[in-house]
Design goal:
The complex is a heterodimer. Chain A is of the alpha/beta class. Chain A is built from twelve helices and 25 strands. Chain A has two domains: 215 residues, FAD/NAD(P)-binding domain; 135 residues, FAD/NAD(P)-binding domain (3-Layer(bba) Sandwich). Chain B is mainly α. The chains are: A alpha/beta, B mainly alpha.
């Protein structure tokens, strides 16, 4: 029996009386398009944000029905996926969770389906398996790519040749395979888009992990980093220190090199039409915007990329009763990180429960803690505590709380592992 | 600015202001839930180098946070995060986590070491870490069922001087060998 069918049966409960044929075709409908009873929250996206929003709403109020809609039956964490690319993990199992325990423990209705649209007027989420009516909708759709900004980039075919690996899973595996297949002495090209993008230190951690792999397994190879930004976006001093310590002559960092065109077949990227760079492996991370579901729901702001939200409730400033959390939203000073999404989800969940019970809205108190590995045993971190500035109506960092590690640290690498264990456990149980 | 953009800005501003301007200050749960990404839901840690906070006495949490903030207690992220909070926030966290149910971890431990630790525990530690470490006197933290790697990191920091031992603890620790201490940590990790 496939995971999809198991989840479906769980959702419908035993003895739902549907024929096997209709189950298999996926056209049975969910029976969720009718009136809701006034207490249904639909959460779209089962990643760092969505799982936590769904769970905390149910933890705080069992009278609220929560439906979690996600296209996959499992989730692979982007945080730590660079360690797999660097060869420190043999597979993605430590990064993979499913929704079985989360749904069972908290009475969340898990629906594995592709969201195809949102009708904010009728309060309906349209999915590949039928419509679902909501009283409040939480979107945690992550990111999609602004392919139109790179000439020659095709959303379907380019990632197969030039993996972005910026959504963890098959793309992560593909990039690793390409590195393994690369001849010694070859070159890896990584392209970093202009900020803001998902996980500000992520590209630099990845470069570190790839350099570590090259140093061990592909003598005389190097990695050229073409950074669209004028400088390293996050943890700059620590990355430079780590690169000097471990990867001198392997990492060639070039700032202000924005890739504007590619020839995927020739594995070549063009910078502002002036300079081409060819790689044996090209890790092209395209510029990003809120996930397509947010675009379809009409909650993307005038910058055409990200979703403006109320900093206390994470309700869209554009559509009533639709909340947006995680990488897709504009959360003031909070970076687009997994931990931020976790914190945003809890704030959003708390205030959805408050609003649905006619209680006072409560201000956020959020955290970001984000680790990056520089070598097999050393990591660094950045932290922040976040609150709403009431006058400016924006999320700001608490003074003194945003800071990076003083140095590369083996202890931080140990803590980082527990970070992963705890946050994925929180999402999956 | 086009008319549509002005309209957008006005409606956005109206929606945005509707909630946050009148919101209440963060509750203990709001402040503490943010910690759970690393310390586990309701402070029940699943990560072997992170302590569970569930069921700690209030004083131990407040004292730990103050020491992280001042730098007296060594930390990595904790020293930095603590700077973002006030004493009132620490009290709120302490209130929240002290009310959570004690979290029993399932760890595989060397039973000989656990037994040796058990034989040393009463004489060496039980005056402050009471009830097999399930309770703490004053600001003594809950030791029962904490992850062994967490306990070992902390003991390591005490022994190398990074973390200052309370005087009474220093007196008790002094005659113990490293093996004895490790056995004691095994014992506390085993208590459910």
């Amino acid at each position: 029996m496939t995971m999809q069918r198991r989840s479906f049966l769980k959702l419908m409960g035993a003895g739902a009386g549907l024929g096997a044929a209709s189950l298999m075709t996926g056209c049975a409908g969910l029976g969720m398009e009718g009136p809701t009873g006034g207490r249904r929250v639909v959460v779209v996206g089962g990643g760092y944000g969505g799982t936590i929003a769904a769970k905390y709403i149910r933890m705080m109020d069992k009278s609220i029905e929560v439906v979690l809609v996600e296209r996959n039956d499992h989730f692979v964490s982007c945080p730590f996926s660079n360690l797999y690319i660097g060869g420190l993990m043999k597979d993605l199992s430590a990064l993979t969770i499913n929704y079985d325990k989360l749904a069972a423990n908290h009475g969340i209705k898990f629906v594995q389906a592709e969201v195809t649209g949102v009708d904010a007027g009728a309060k309906l989420v349209r999915t590949s398996r039928g419509d679902i009516r909501y009283d409040r909708l939480v979107l945690s759709p992550g990111i999609d790519f602004r392919a139109e900004e790179i000439k020659g980039y095709d959303l379907a075919s380019t990632p197969e040749l030039m993996p972005h690996a910026w959504k963890a899973g098959p793309q992560t595996v593909l990039l690793r395979k390409q590195l393994e297949a690369m001849p010694a002495g070859g070159s890896v090209v990584m392209s970093i888009p202009l900020a803001p993008f998902r996980c500000p230190p992520g590209p630099y951690e990845r470069a570190s992990m790839i350099a570590m792999y090259l140093k061990q397994h592909k003598p005389k190879s190097k990695i050229v980093i073409l950074d669209g930004n004028p400088d390293i976006v996050s943890k700059k001093g620590l990355f430079l220190k780590g690169w000097k310590k471990h990867y001198e002559g392997i990492i060639d960092y070039r700032p202000a090199k924005k890739v504007t065109e590619i020839d995927a077949g020739k594995k070549t990227v063009l910078i502002e039409g002036l300079e081409d760079v060819r790689g044996d492996v090209v890790n092209l991370i395209p510029p990003q915007r809120a996930g397509a579901i947010a675009v379809a729901a009409g909650v993307v702001g005038p910058d055409k990329n990200w979703c403006p939200v109320n900093p206390t409730t994470f309700e869209s400033t554009l559509k009533k009763d639709i909340h947006v959390i995680g990488d897709a939203c504009i959360a003031g000073a909070m970076p687009k990180s997994g931990y931020s999404a976790n914190s945003e989800a809890k704030t959003c969940a708390t205030n959805i429960v408050n609003a649905m019970n006619g209680r006072e809205i409560v201000d956020m108190s959020g955290i970001n803690t984000c680790y990056s590995y520089l070598s097999a045993k050393e990591a660094v971190s950045v932290t922040g505590v976040y609150r709403v500035n009431k006058e400016k109506n924006v999320i700001e960092a608490a003074p003194g709380s945003v800071a990076v590690s003083p140095d590369l640290s083996e202890l931080e690498a140990i803590y980082a592992e527990s970070w992963l264990k705890n946050i994925l456990t929180e999402m999956s149980t | 600015m086009k008319i549509s953009q002005i309209k957008w800005a006005l409606s956005a501003a109206a929606l945005a202001l509707s909630a946050s301007a009148f919101a209440a200050p963060p509750t203990p749960a709001m402040i503490s839930n943010a910690c759970a990404g690393c310390h586990g839901t309701n402070g029940a840690s699943a990560g072997p180098s992170m302590p569970s906070l569930a069921g700690h006495n209030k004083e131990s949490i407040v004292v730990a946070m103050k020491k992280f903030k001042s730098g007296e207690r060594p930390g990595t992220v904790m020293g930095r995060l603590a700077k973002g909070y006030s004493d009132a926030d620490f009290a709120a966290m302490a209130d929240f986590f002290s009310k959570q149910k004690f979290h029993a971890t399932g760890q595989s431990l060397d039973s000989a070491k656990v037994a040796r630790g058990k034989s040393l525990e009463e004489e060496s530690c039980s005056r402050c870490h009471m009830e097999g470490g399930k309770e703490g006197k004053d600001d003594s933290p809950i030791m029962a069922s904490q992850w062994l790697p967490y306990l070992q990191i902390q003991m390591g920091q005490y022994l190398n001087g990074q973390r200052k031992m309370p005087e009474k603890m220093a007196e008790k620790v002094k005659p113990l060998s490293k093996e004895d201490l490790d056995a004691l940590l095994h014992f506390y990790a085993s208590v459910k």
